[in-house]
Design brief:
By secondary structure, the chain is mainly beta. It has one domain. A hairpin with a 2-residue loop joins strand 1 and strand 2. The two termini are about 20 Å apart. It has one helix and five strands. The strands form two sheets. A three-stranded antiparallel beta sheet has the order 1-2-3. The protein has one helix at about 5-10, and strands at about 15-20, 20-30, 35-45, 45-50, 55-60.
Length: about 60
């Protein structure tokens, strides 16, 4: 399912994880709820996000 379909459904947060090389992209629906995602953070080492709950995630820990 594409990110645009997920955003259109109103799901407020969306993560995309690339595996080679490992990289995480964290998105949220933009301010005003226009049902389009904006990039909140991305990284290959550590992601630290305040929403939807505070999390600091070393990317190496999510490797398959």
């Amino acid at each position: 399912m594409s990110a645009s379909h997920v955003a259109a459904a109103g799901i407020p947060f969306y993560w995309r994880i690339e595996q080679d090389p490992v990289h995480l992209y964290a998105y949220r629906i933009g301010p005003g709820g226009e049902r389009q995602y904006e990039l909140v953070d991305d990284g290959s080492e550590v992601i630290e996000l305040p929403e939807p709950f505070a999390i600091k995630l070393p990317i190496a820990e999510i490797r398959p």
